[in-house]
Amino acid sequence: MLPDHPTIAIVGAGAVGGYYGARLAQHRHDVHFLLRSDYDAIRRDGWTIRSIAGDFRLAPGQTQIYKDVREMPRCDLVIVTLKTTANDQFERIVGPLLKDDTAILTLQNGLGNEDRLAELFGPQRVLGGLAFVCANRLAPGVIHHIDHGMIRVGEFGGGSSERASRIARIFQSSNVPCEMLDDLRCGRWSKLVWNVPFNGLGAVLNLTTDRLIDDPAGVQLLSAIMREVIAAAEQLGMNMPADMVDRMMRHTQTMGAYRSSMQIDRQAARPMEVEAILGEPLRQAAKAAVPTPCLEMLYRLVKLVDNHSPSALQADSSGR
Amino acid sequence: MLPDHPTIAIVGAGAVGGYYGARLAQHRHDVHFLLRSDYDAIRRDGWTIRSIAGDFRLAPGQTQIYKDVREMPRCDLVIVTLKTTANDQFERIVGPLLKDDTAILTLQNGLGNEDRLAELFGPQRVLGGLAFVCANRLAPGVIHHIDHGMIRVGEFGGGSSERASRIARIFQSSNVPCEMLDDLRCGRWSKLVWNVPFNGLGAVLNLTTDRLIDDPAGVQLLSAIMREVIAAAEQLGMNMPADMVDRMMRHTQTMGAYRSSMQIDRQAARPMEVEAILGEPLRQAAKAAVPTPCLEMLYRLVKLVDNHSPSALQADSSGR
Fold first, then answer.
1. Residues of A in contact with B301 (CB under 8 A)
2. What is the pLDDT of residue A255?
3. What pLDDT is recorded for position B314?
């Protein structure tokens, strides 16, 4: 059981972890941030949050930050907001934070994150959350919360739980809309129906969402990919609404010139979350024997872009 | 019949037309170039050819150039080297050059060019040629012939002909290796097995051939696309060698960091030959009921890149 006033660790304090962690701390929750490159700046200046839900600051004395996980207390709740490309660090940076009954909530993108945490630390600990939030890290400790913000939380094993509803209340009491999710897996796949095509094509073509949906060739590509993701989800036992493609297209029209996270990573020459967003869904579809030629091609295209980004090439040439 | 000393028109004097036309003129053939933007420079400075087969120049007095097709003589042989994106100009700029028995030889890329010329001017006039040449236009009238140079010429209707062999001898006598092709259609499709994947992926990803074949994801994409093109060709009645994919890969390894024409067009923000290289093969495969999901996706990706190149966007916004 989570205690009434749990100690909370935020592992991976980029835009998403920084925003939600700072909201929790603003509302007097006992939050401990694990930081790397931003540590010194936040030690000096604290957090500055510019948010559509209200700006605020946390002075250095109002935030508990660490750059070494071994100096952190073991916590009741560990919220994982690492980029999925760093999932090979789970053991090193999540392990030391765990007590016997610590709950782990991953707010990361895509598939496979809960599974990996469950393998390492036991499935009974693990919850997952979908963060529907648009936020950027403007500078170390400076986060811009641009739009949305809702989190949907569910148990890795499915179903409802007292623990999940307590986590939801913690967020709700911190000015973060939060809902419970009975079927986390179905929630993840539903989000993928949007994320796979818009992240994948955004990364490969370096085009914002409005450019993709304004072009007939773009609409054909998006629809073909969405239909494959939906077919895979249904074959895996989930029900998707019949009008899902249309619904996603209409929703995207309201978003303006939106850059997906993979497009942003491409532009910044940072590693992309290829496996969580494309590779793992592709592998699950293949296991279920669903033909996904477009998804497969998209995955390989994104891998090529990722392998040939300036940062990858630099790492490559310095390694030789 | 082609006369012993035919008058020859070169329609579209970019790198390919400029190089071959200048070679013919250098060897005393009666060549008439139709030019547009390069007319004034060539009027002033003539042609300068830097070539692995030997550099040469044609002074202004040694070349017959025109900027208006109506000032040109009707010719015995019209060699079409227009970019296929300008094929809607055939009537206007090929029509006035024709006598009753003028032969038309298109050296353009991809599929559909002979068909369109045959529709407009009669199939009995039409021949096609595959130009295996690597040449760049460095400046108006300045062509760099970098590598290869062989032409393979065949009748649109297939089979051998006295006319095709005479055209071959004209090229051969001008320091241009030239072979006859009994099955032009099979030659075109064989070339597409390379052109479709390397041009398409080169354009979408802005990657040279060496980058594509050095990456496992690239090899998987290239092979999948090649196999679809081969399957379409075979369903359409052509025989392709069993080891064609391997052969193309090995050949590409000898080419170094080669930029396909579509990648060059992308970098120069020029229109790409999307329909001739991708759209027409796709439509022919669809007619033959061959499933080509990768080719279809590649076609749409290239169209998106083409539609969103800086030049297309500029044209678009000025049109509104």
1. 204-205, 217, 221, 301
2. 86
3. 56
Architecture in CATH of B186-312: Orthogonal Bundle (1.10)
Which of B212, B221, B305 has the CB atom closest to A297's CB atom? B221
At residue A311, the pLDDT reads: 67
Distance from CA of B300 to the nearest CA of A (A): 5
Q: Is the minimum CB–CB distance between A154 and chain B shorter than 8 Å?
A: no
The distance of Cα B207 from the centroid of its chain, to the nearest Å, equals: 21
H or E segment at B147?
Answer: strand B142-155
Confidence check on the interface: ipTM exceeds 0.95, yes or no: no
Which residue, among B52, B47, B44, B50, has the nearest Cα to B18 in the 3D structure?
B47
List chain A residues with pLDDT less than 50: 316-320
- Return the residue matching tokens 């109506």: B70
State CA A154 to chain mean position distance: 14
The domain spans of chain A are: 7-182, 186-312
Residue B313 is predicted with a pLDDT of 62
**Whole-number pLDDT of residue B117:** 98
The answer to whether A105 touches A167, Cβ cutoff 8 Å, is yes
A279 to chain B nearest CA, in Å?
12
A303/chain B closest Cα distance in angstroms:
7
Could you say which of B201, B211, B303 has the minimum Cβ distance to residue A217? B303
- C-alpha to C-alpha distance for B10 and B314, rounded to whole angstroms: 31
Asked if residues A185 and A129 have their Cβ atoms less than 8 Å apart, the reply is no
Domains B7-182 and B186-312 share a fold: no
The set of long-range contacts for B253-257, using a CB threshold of 8 Å and a minimum separation of 24, is B253/B210, B253/B213, B255/B209, B255/B210, B256/B209, B256/B210, B257/B208, B257/B209, B257/B210, B257/B211
Q: What is the DSSP string of A108-126?
A: -SSSSHHHHHHHHH-GGGE
pTM, whole model, 2 decimals? 0.91
Per-residue model confidence (pLDDT) at position A9: 98
CB contact (8 A) between residue A207 and residue B304? yes
The three-state (H, E, C) secondary structure of A249-285, written as one string? HHHHHCCCCCCCHHHHHHHCCCCCCHHHHHHHHHHHH
Low-confidence ranges of chain B (pLDDT < 70): 311-320
Q: Catalytic site residue B67?
A: no
Q: Please tell me the distance from the alpha carbon of residue B317 to that of residue B315, in angstroms, as a whole number.
A: 6
DSSP B80-100: E---GGGGGGHHHHHGGGEEE
- CATH number for A7-182: choose from 3.40.1280.10, 3.40.50.720, 2.60.120.320, 3.40.50.200: 3.40.50.720
**CA angle A287–A293–A295, rounded 5-degree value:** 80
Sign, CA torsion A233/A239/A242/A246: negative
pLDDT of residue A213: 97
Tokens of B201: 């992926």
